[in-house]
Amino acid sequence: MLKQIRNYFITGLVVLLPLLATIYILSAVISMVEQGFGPLIEFIIGKRIYGLSIIISVGVILGVGVIATNVLGKKLIEFGERILTKIPIVRNIYLTVQQIIEALFRKNKTAFRKVVVVEYPRQGIYQIGFLTKEGIARIERNLDLEVVSIFIPTTPNPTSGMLVLIPKEEVTYLDMTVEEGLKLIVSGGTIVPEEGYRGS
Q: 109-193: which CATH topology?
């Protein structure tokens, strides 16, 4: 009975937390816009217009998107990222969120191409990894071997890890999206693609 209640509770958390996190983030953005622009608009117009903060929030997001796509905007973002990545705790949080967002919304541009399984660090032990590069001619010439670059991430922070060069024939490609692979890593193996789940 207690085990069933525990399972219901965990299932409820898994369903609710992503939704609540999304609502919280959107509410926070709208609240910041409301606090920043609300008094100014009220001063100019002379009255408070409810719902205007949502429109402004959408406009701000679109504006940032437009700025981020031009050369100057990219340089400003790179400068800001360099500052953030020098702050110890902020760096880990920012890079983790950034990697997940990149995988979720910009799948074609992510550095991770495919989800793979490799035997590492020794035979009989398997690691989930991400294919980052195939056909590295300069290395293959020295090794006289066809290898691929595999990034082995750590849990729960997939932005840290190690690069390993594996012989191509020793890599097993999984029927799994990069998004699913990242969820698997971040959750410590508790969130897996439905077809691959064999637990009770």
A: SH3 type barrels. (2.30.30)
